[in-house]
Amino acid sequence: xxxxxxxxxxxxxxxxxxxxxxxxxxxxxxxxxxxxxxxxxxxxxxxxxxxxxxxxxxxxxxxxxxxxxxxxxxxxxxxxxxxxxxxxxxxxxxxxxxxxxxxxxxxxxxxxxxxxxxxxxxxxxxxxxxxxx
Amino acid sequence: xxxxxxxxxxxxxxxxxxxxxxxxxxxxxxxxxxxxxxxxxxxxxxxxxxxxxxxxxxxxxxxxxxxxxxxxxxxxxxxxxxxxxxxxxxxxxxxxxxxxxxxxxxxxxxxxxxxxx
Lengths: 133, 117
What we know:
Number of helices of chain A: 5
Order of helices and strands of chain A: HHHHH
Order of helices and strands of chain B: HHHH
Number of strands of chain B: 0
Structural class of chain B: mainly alpha
Helix content of chain B: over 70%
Strand content of chain B: under 5%
Shape of chain B: elongated
Number of domains of chain A: 1
Oligomer: heterodimer
Helix content of chain A: over 70%
Number of domains of chain B: 1
């Protein structure tokens, strides 16, 4: 099955919640709760990124407008991606557990880490150069 | 919340204690919801600060009210889920709950983008 149709099917599960429960058997409740906590941890990461976006906007007022808004919007976009991906991953893990399959692997954590590192380096450079100039 | 030990006298009627998960999974999940609500509060407070810091304007007050409504929605979601988690073997959350929590976050981010821009 191609990635595209898999994604569309996952998207359908967001809006047709009963479809998740129709498949397979109910897993041990502790596994479901662990999956829920993982989802909440990702949601906190998203909220932290959103808070970071506000912080850049509010607490670096000496930056040029373009840099400030650009950095803030990059962090906010990361937050949106992170929360959407949190739901998608929760649905995928829940379904894999119900079917008894392997849990899905993802390169999202690595991607997010790289993006956050790039934003952090950009922020450090901008603050240093901004203070010099 | 009851006692911490699970070795109560079985005759005192606290049968829930006997079923309590030794790994405290429902409690940990409840605390995770609380932490997430706290994170949401911080984000909403920062939104309010950004919206009202340059003196109140009509748009600023509107976005601030929207953020407060989103925070309230998250609070209600978390409260309902924490109530469901108070039983001995709680079921997985409804996908609607999970989706709504994520949508609150996305909406907060969109408010933030509108405020920053």
